[in-house]
Amino acid sequence: MRAMAESITCRRVYEDPTPQDGTRVLVDRVWPRGMRKDDAHLDEWLRDVAPSTDLRRWYGHEPERFPEFRRRYHAELRDSEHRTAAEHLRDLAGRGRLTLLTATKDLDRSQAAVLAGWLSDEH
What we know:
- The chain is an alpha/beta fold.
- 41% of the residues lie in helices and 13% in strands.
- The chain has helices at 2-6, 53-59, 66-78, 80-95, 111-120, and strands spanning 8-12, 23-26, 44-45, 98-102.
- A four-stranded parallel sheet has the order 1-4-2-3.
- The termini are close together.
- It comes from Actinacidiphila bryophytorum.
- This is DUF488 domain-containing protein.
């Protein structure tokens, strides 16, 4: 799985795409504010893999809540509602470079970062 970990990156959707991005997938449940769909340069918008609305609101990007957010989000990823989308991302990552896109400013404490780690581990 080490090769898969190296092929998954996280970036803000507002950043310009690069040739190194590979497949670009937006993993936010809500469309990014102020972003036109034509300007996003996406291959897919996979909102079903995003945290539930309740979890997203509870987290509120409070840094001290991140460990618990990660734990709860991992539980959601194992849930049937998210499983198909998560497995689709795993398949995409197995085919080559994958860039998980989010509007979140703090990439290290985002659902994209949790997803990248989850995809790199065996679950």
